[in-house]
Design a protein that fits this description.
Structural class of chain A: mainly alpha
Largest interface: A-B, 49 and 55 residues
CATH class of chain A: Mainly Alpha
Helix content of chain A: over 70%
Number of domains of chain A: 1
Shape of chain A: flat
Helix content of chain B: over 70%
Radius of gyration of chain B: 24 Å
CATH superfamily of chain B: Fumarate reductase/succinate dehydrogenase, transmembrane subunit
CATH class of chain B: Mainly Alpha
Largest sheet of chain A: 2 strands, antiparallel
Strand order of the largest sheet of chain A: 1-2
Structural class of chain B: mainly alpha
Distance between the termini of chain B: 85 Å
Largest sheet of chain B: none
Number of strands of chain A: 2
Oligomer: heterodimer
CATH topology of chain B: 3 helical TM bundles of succinate and fumarate reductases
Radius of gyration of chain A: 22 Å
Distance between the termini of chain A: 84 Å
Shape of chain B: elongated
Amino acid sequence: MSERRPFHRQQARRWWAHKPYLAYTVRELSGVAVALYGAILLAGLICLWRGPEAYADFQRILRSDGAFAVHLVLLAAVLWHVVTWFQILPKTMPKLILGGRQVPQRQVTAIALLVAMVCSAALLVVVVAIGAMS
Amino acid sequence: MRTTVLRPTVLHHPAPKRSIAPVFWLLFGAGGMLSALFGPALIILTGFMLPHGWGVPASFSDFPHVLAFVHHPIGKLLVLAVIALFFWHGAERLFLTLKDMRAGPLLVLRLLTYGVAALLTLVTIALLLAIGF
């Protein structure tokens, strides 16, 4: 009887911290930043539920330098999430064929990024417009 | 003499086992798309503009205004969609990354990611209902 001896490829213990896998790790963790931002909003909701005093504390924390820095880091991470999300989009959706030609993946990414920028800008414009009218 | 009747062979494939993975993928995708389209604006709005009153009236972020927003059914839905879907998006990404890193038993990883997302979704729903209409 021969013993089963499957081949195990050597893999560095912390492969995810080295190239070329580092890009994958950073991309995935940029998605986790999205959840961290959700946690800040949830904290605000809890303070809102507890009452005006707790909510005032939440507002004071949001105005602090620390919260400013945290939001800058989250913004950078989420912007990277936006870019990578739309780089993946053409790989996960069916081939887009227009006029008998396949639309190149780069073009799909570029159009989607443009749509995303318009969406984000539109939200800010709407809020500023409501503020100006009220 | 015996004859055999040749019947067309019918192959019985057992019904494929149903997986609930698509549910998680749907939540992951919805959260990813929502945050990709509106995430940067939301962070600029709630992280910089509203707390400091930049470009918007300072009263926009005070207690009565925000309470009125969350009292409204549409406001409630928006808050729930953003918080819950963002959590489910992060949970799926964290779970798959930790799984690839072989960070621990899958059950533990699932509880730490999907479990937390599910719990916080329920907390968000409970808070929105407790705040009232």
